[in-house]
Write a structure and sequence with these properties.
Blueprint: E1 6-9, H1 13-24, E2 32-35, H2 39-49, E3 52-54, H3 57-63, E4 66-69, H4 76-83, E5 93-96, H5 103-110, E6 115-120, E7 130-136, H6 142-153, E8 156-160, H7 166-175, H8 177-194, H9 199-219, H10 224-230, H11 237-247, H12 250-272
Parallel strand pairs: 1-2, 1-4, 2-3, 4-5, 5-6, 7-8
Antiparallel strand pairs: 6-7
Helix pairs in contact: 4-5, 7-12, 8-9
Amino acid sequence: MDQKKIGFIGGGNMASALVGGLIDGGYPRENIWVSDIDSEKLDRLESQYGIRTTLDNRVIVHNADVLVLAVKPQVVKSVLTDLGAGVLRSESIVISIVAGIREADLQKWLGAPVALIRAMPNTPALIRSGATALHANSVVTDEQRDIAESILRSVGLVVWLESESRLDAVTALSGSGPAYFFLLMEAMEESALRLGLDRQTARLLIEQTAFGAAKIALEFEESPAELRVRVTSPGGTTQKALEAFEKGGFRTLVAEALSAAHGRSIEMSRELGGE
């Protein structure tokens, strides 16, 4: 794979994270290209990583064996249609990390059938702790799957989905998920202040507790339900807190929140795809 030239159209945070992850993993920086309309952004990327940059998307397409679409959903149609039909090499792989844009629409705007993989990463990829779901279309080979997995694995965990429609569920779960945990941490911090702790102390304790809980969940074989029981002493403070959560409809609220995000993901796909 080290001989493959990887080209990113779009040089935002996620592209920067992937470039950094690849280079940290030993990928040759001279085989990485990035294009963007923002020359200052390109200057920063070139200075930080020593990669090749250009303002011209066509340069990326002509040089890349692997094309990573990393632009905003609202502009991907114009970016791809501006390239023109047939500009992509037949052996190229296209990896789209553009949220909410379906395979059928990407193929339509590219103007030709291509080996296409959709990816749904999340923001912890910025610190190499991301969770990404991938879906490949029917013409993607096993070798191309391996290439895509290696690129996304440079910033965290990777799972494959057999159905493209499941990406909407992933968007609701891990794609939007970091914000859910931040909201809980925010609410805990506000409550801790009312209980008499200063903000700095409360925040440090909350952050380390969240980190520790996630680490236990990752490293222990038990399910979250089993872990919850394991750390809850009958009649103790934790049980009282959990009873309050349940009484307030915590599970129902979580289900409603994920359902709302899932519905909006489907809705946005239709809007951005031009239906």
